[in-house]
């Protein structure tokens, strides 16, 4: 009986170690290793003018090219990267690579060309972000490329004096600010007003329910009206069907993003394809 108890205790202990202790720690060291190995790469998804369906910009989405596990999606590693602060050097890598690629293909891009980059809550309390943005702007060396910082709603919640100053500085550099996943967090309008916003991105949850759920449509319509009154441009995310695109355009949404136009693909491939298409025209 005692042997059984000891065995169970051991099993429980090792299970506890693996799930609670070891896994996050090993992910942490994996992330550290991957940073020095430059395994984080920028993928890109186009953003289109809702009326003309012309390309106006793109969003950079991070992917992990893991030597063993292959392509890893952000949900698997961004939360841990944000909690540990490693998101800062990871974003640094992504911004450097993005600037390098854009510089090579800038002749083929329309003006202005918006480049959305997702930033983490940690960036809002650090001076690193404005240094990185400054470097990005000087590296692409083309003022038709506009850097848009995408902040998800939950991060916009607490706007400290520091954050307020940081955003003012970023704006003076020429960056624009977008609120991502709008409608899924708890931002009050008072808080949103504190940041001088440019874009509002309607979350894909609402877009998915167009034609299915009246409440989602109502929320879209109200959001669009509010955004217009605040002079914000609106981007709808997760557009997968022509019917959704048409509905959103009719309601006054300015820009569309989603699988209807393209899935995220490697930035380099995206820029190459785009340049080739222009040459053929
Ligand atoms: P997000 O910024 O809201 O990005 C949009 C997500 O929706 C992307 O997922 C994109 O692939 C997906 N998506 C786009 N169009 C469609 C569509 O038509 N249908 C569906 N079902 N999905 C669509 P992804 O690439 O997996 O990224 C997930 C989230 O991870 C992002 O959400 C963003 O919050 C975060 N993330 C991605 N890259 C970065 C990064 O570099 N830094 C930080 N801090 N977070 C990042
Ligand atoms: Mg985003
Ligand atoms: Mg989003
Ligand atoms: Mg999201």
Automatic annotation (TrEMBL):
Residue ranges annotated for the EAL domain, each copy included: 24-278
Keyword annotations: c-di-GMP, Cell membrane, Hydrolase, Membrane, Transmembrane, Transmembrane helix
Keyword Transmembrane: yes
MF terms in GO: cyclic-guanylate-specific phosphodiesterase activity
Keyword rRNA-binding: no
Superkingdom to which the source organism belongs: Bacteria
Bilayer-crossing regions: 1-21
Listed GO CC annotations: plasma membrane
Topology versus the membrane: Multi-pass membrane protein
Major subcellular site: membrane
Cellular compartment(s): Cell membrane
Record-listed E.C. numbers: 3.1.4.52
Reaction equations catalysed: 3',3'-c-di-GMP + H2O = 5'-phosphoguanylyl(3'->5')guanosine + H(+)
Full protein name: cyclic-guanylate-specific phosphodiesterase
Organism of derivation: Photobacterium andalusiense
Gene this protein is translated from: yahA
Part of the full-length chain shown: 230 to 510 of 510
